[in-house]
Amino acid sequence: MKKHALIFCAVTAAGLLSAGRVFGAPPPPIPLASLLSLRATGRLEVVTAGCGNSTGHVADLRLRNLTADSLRVEVPPLLLESRSGKFQHYACPFGQTIRLAAQGTATVPLEGMCLTHPRPAVGNGVTGELLPNDGNPGLPRPVGSHFTSTEARKLVRVAESYYLASEQLERRGAYRHLPYRDSKTRTKVATQIGVWQDPQVAKLTGTKPVTKQEIEHACVDEQENTQPVTPETKEKFEQGVEEVSKAVTLTTQEAKVHERPDPFAKVELTGQKAKTNG
Question: The dihedral of CA 79, 258, 248, 56: what is its sign?
Answer without folding.
Answer: positive
